[in-house]
């Protein structure tokens, strides 16, 4: 089982409340530092994804304010031709 799979399994076990964190990590042979490192990486990835979605939403809103008659096809084309934001 890969480390990523073990970490996913640990997340599931913790979400279900099967055991406290130290016991779960010990049973799955995951070092504590590795657990927190992966958790931090996930938080950073989620933050970046949220920022990108917010930027894209603003760009779509700008296009629709300028061209309210555009449908999704034209908006998509406009995003690809001249990205806003």
List the helices and strands and how they pair.
Layout: H1 3-16, H2 21-27, H3 32-66, H4 72-81
Low-confidence stretches: none
Approximate shape? rod-shaped
How many strand segments? 0
Q: How do the SSEs run, as a string of H and E?
A: HHHH
End-to-end Cα distance, whole Å, is: 42 Å
Largest sheet: none
The proportion of strand residues reads under 5%
Structural class: mainly alpha
Mean pLDDT reading: 91
Rg of Cα set: 21 Å
Number of helices: 4
Briefly summarize what is shown.
The chain is an all-alpha fold and 85 residues long. The chain is built from four helices and no strands.
Describe the structure.
With 85 residues, the chain is mainly alpha-helical. It has 4 helices and no strands. It has helices at residues 3-16, 21-27, 32-66, 72-81. The longest helix is centred in the middle third of the chain and has 35 residues, at 32-66. The radius of gyration is 21 Å and the shape is rod-shaped. The N and C termini lie far apart (42 Å). The model has no long low-confidence stretch (mean pLDDT 91).
Q: What keywords describe this structure?
A:
mainly alpha, rod-shaped
